[in-house]
Amino acid sequence: MRLYLLFTIFAVLVAAVFAWEKEDHEIFDLVSALEASEGKGTTFYSLLDVPPTASTSQIAKAYRRLSVKIHPDKNPGVKNAHERFARLGVIANILRNKASRKRYDFFYKNGVPRWRGTGYYYSRFRPGLGTVLVFLIMVTSGLQLLIQRINYKKDLARIELITRRAKRAAWGPKLVPLAGQRKVRVSLGQEYDEDGFVDNSRSIEMVVEGQDVYIFDDDGELQPIDNSTATTPSFGNTWFIALVKSVYHKLTSKEKSDDVIQHPDVDTSAGFDVSDSSDETSDTTGSGTNTPKESTEKLNKRMVPVEKAGGKRRKVNKRR
User: Fold this and answer.
1) Could you list the residue range(s) of the whole structural domain that residue 104 is in?
2) Where does it localize (predicted)?
3) I want to staple 94 with a disulfide (CB 3.0 to 4.6 A). Which of 61, 79, 100, 290 is the partner?
């Protein structure tokens, strides 16, 4: 709640600082009308034909000269002659006043805001979707890298604490190195049970050998624990780079699996002919034994139907 209140106050102050005043709107309207009448890019100084560093007397002299030239009485029938003459008088008054001239010089150097329907706004760069996405990726990746560095420092401090405890348990409080391996149990920190008592159940077995400290992994093998155990912060470990790597590995593994399916490796070392498998299968009888090819052909010849002679069945006389 307090953070939201501070943010609201800050937003109000910023809006108050950047809000245009009445004199600013008068200058904006004059610049717009002047460019519409005299041409785009026309300024108060170019209208009077004086440099921006002109003195007040030079501005007054230029005003008198131009006012005589564009006076409505000198230009009868000229359209908008009265508006041009009145505008010239307002511009001269602004430049002859020290405060108003300073205000105009600010917009003269930094540009005049443009009318956007509801007010005057500066024409600012409007980033596209791609620019916004790139910006968000860079910001989030940078924050993640910062968090990685903070965690890395914490991991180094924790490793230093655990190794010091292991050496103290193996060598004693004086930390005099002893020869050989020594297996010790090191507490990882104090925990409190439901009754509020200290529970030292969080402990691990470690092995100290010289200046090296080892820890048992899941397979019971000894793994050294030192500063290299902590994960080094890297931009390659941020979420976007990790996502790109994951997608790339999935695509490459899919292409490899497709190649294996389309071109399988057949082992012909056992002496089998893959191309003749269909013939061998056709030569296999229902009893599970192989019938020779020649006997099969003879059997097929015997089973070939014979055409009837004359188309009629002849009676065979039995011999008595």
Assistant:
1) 17-113
2) Endomembrane system
3) 100
